[in-house]
Amino acid sequence: MAYVVIAYLWLSILLYLILGGADFGAGIIELLTSAKNRIRTRKTLYHAIGPIWEANHMWLIIAIVILFVGFPVIYSEMSTYLHIPLVIMLVGIIARGTAFVFRHYDAIKDDMQWLYNRIFLLSSFVTPFFLGIIAASTISGRIQPDASDFQTAYVFSWFNLFSISVGLFTVSICGFLASVFLIGEADDEADRKRFVNKAIRMNIAAIVCGIIVFIVAEIDKIPLRHWVFGEPLGLIAVQAATVSLAVLWYFIYRGKNMLPRIMAGFQVTMILFAVSYAHFPDFIRLHGGRSLSLLELQAPPKTMEALGWALIIGSVFILPALFYLYYSFQRHEER
Prior knowledge:
By secondary structure, the protein is mainly α. It has one domain (2-334). It contains 13 helices and two strands. Strands 1-2 form a two-stranded antiparallel sheet. A hairpin with a 5-residue loop joins strand 1 (282-285) and strand 2 (291-293). Helix 11 packs antiparallel against helix 12.
C-alpha cells in the first residue's frame, strides 16, 4: 500500500504543477502584458480560470495531507527547515485568491482596484517562485538539521543560487503552460497570435532558465545532470519531453487548441519524472549525503493502509465530480 500512497503523492504534485501552474501562469502572463492589452488579457484569463481556479489547490492539500499522515518525519523536517519559503508561498496563495475575488466581484469600483491588481500580479509570480525554491531545496543537500546557527539552519538551506534558479524555471514553466492554455481561449485571431507570441517567449525563458539550473547544479556539485541524463528512463523522459515540445508547436501552428494543452502537460510530466526517478525513494537530501526516504520513514502499516484506501475511495467520488465541473463549464461556454 505504501507504493499506492507514494503514487498519489507524486500525482498530486504533478497535477498541482500543471493545473495550479497554469493558474499562476495566467497572472504571470497578465504581469508581462502591455497596459493597452491588459484589459483584454484579463478578460480572457477570467474566462479560462474563473470557474475552477480554487479547485486547483485541492492537489496541494492532498500532497500535504499525504506527507502529514503517511510520512510524518519528512513532513516535520520540511515544515521546520523550510518554514520561511513555505509561509511565503502560502501567504502568496491566500493573497492571490483574495485579490482575484475582490478585483472581480467587488461591488464598488474605486482606487482599491489598483491595489487588488498589484497583489494578484505580484502573488502570481511569488507563489510559483517559492514553490520552485522549496522543490529545489529538498534535493540540493543544503538542509542541515545539526546546524548551530539560525541562518545555516533556516535561511541558507533555501536561499542559494540553485534554489533561486529553479524558482525562476518554475515561474517560466507556469507562464508557458498558461500561454498555451490561453491560446484556445482567445476571442479572435489577433488575441490568438498575441498568446502564441507569449508562449514563444515563455518557452525561450524556460529553456534559458533550465540551462542556468544545470550550470548552477554543476557548480554546487548537485548530481542533477546524472539524475536526468545518467539513467536510461530519465534520458528517455527527456527525449520524450523534447519531442512533445516539437509536436506542441506543430499543433499550435495548425490551429489546434486541445492537443497543445495535452502536449504541454505531458512535457511537464516527463520533466518531473526525469528529475524524481533517479533519486527515488529519497524525498529530501540532507547535508553530508544523508537522505530522508519515503520507504524508510513511512507511517505504521495500518496507517498507510487506511490512508491508501482513503485515497482510492476518495478518488472514486472526487475525480468524477471534478471532471464534471470542467465539462459543465465547458458546455456553458460553448452555449
